[in-house]
Amino acid sequence: MPSLISSLATALLLVSGICAIPQGPSGAESGIVSAVSAASVSTAGVAVSQATTASPSTSNAASGISACNNSPLLCDRAYNNVTHMGAHDSSFLRDASTSDSLAGNQYFNATVALDAGIRLLQAQVHDVNGTLQLCHTSCSLLDAGPLQDWLAKIKFWMDNNPNEVVTILLVNSDNKLVSDYAAVFEGSGISTYGYQLSNGSSASNTWPTLGDMITSNKRLVTFIASIDYSPTYPYLLSEFDHVFETAYNVLSLSGFNCTLDRPKGQGSAGDAISAGLMPLMNHFADSLLLQGVQIPDETDIDITNSPDTSTTGNLGLHADTCVKQWGVKPTFILVDFFDHGPAIDTADRLNGITATGRKSVSGESKGNTSGAGENHSPMGMNVALIAFVVFALAMV
């Protein structure tokens, strides 16, 4: 009987699309949203100024740009002196399109996230018969479709939101060449927005302001893990040439810290900051479903994503702790289920802004927000299979 139960449990995991490997940024975009006014945020006790400089620029206040990334205060601020709030595994949804797959990390898709103020989109990419595909650990678990289709939808959003700077971070799961990624970026048309550093292979303390990126219309920054930078495709940057990360395999709310986890070549967070690398603070927790099987921790998400600074696990507390340890604020933050908290409040506080022009998903049904052809998950048998497993366990 134990072997039968084990087999049933294994089948259940496959059907449910559960992640059996810890996921992090290493290694149909429509939805119902409603307008919302932004609340005031406090900057008390938080360093909102980074020890960085901007490329030479004219004041964007005089250039006709009314707001950059939802605030006029950010137009004259360097890209690396802004905290960009990000959606971890942004293409993998827990919604009607996946029958609420336990593997899903977000309730709402990428363009809904962008409407809500998220400006960093992270995803995992796999090679499926020569096609770069968005898959969560395995395409048999959760498949969000071709990378090129997803990029095309983000481009459409950027076409219609000309005052926004967006960052994309991709996990190169199958170690594909930078030229393979360039083909889909160019095929989607989004490469036209690609920002190019003067020396893309080296970290830099000097980035342009958001206003300058918007004025030049080079307002997409793309990092890809595990690629070799190529001057032929200068808008595709190797992540760990420019970014360092905190740990992502966190299984308890007390597990968040500010210690450098990657790249291993940097001795500490302080060393990485001195070298010009930008901090990425991973702030999402997993829970252990079965031995060796982890899923995104949905149960504690209101604690995890809270902007408060009083409770262990709070996003606000983690951010403040890192600011104190690093002497600078995180340039990037990644969270699961971004709408809870809402997580964006912590970024607003770090940036010292009261945001305008956003849309809110608060109170809306997550529904089927993925669009046709995305987030395919073999979930139809879930109810029957769960009942069968429960019956088998009861017979032990």
UniProtKB/TrEMBL annotation:
InterPro entries: PI-PLC_domain, PLC-like_Pdiesterase_TIM-brl. It holds the Pfam family PI-PLC_X. One of its GO terms (molecular function) is phosphoric diester hydrolase activity. Residues 1-20 form the signal peptide. The keyword Ribonucleoprotein does not apply. Keywords: Signal. This is PLC-like phosphodiesterase. It comes from Neurospora crassa (strain ATCC 24698 / 74-OR23-1A / CBS 708.71 / DSM 1257 / FGSC 987). The lineage of its organism: Eukaryota, Fungi, Dikarya, Ascomycota, Pezizomycotina.
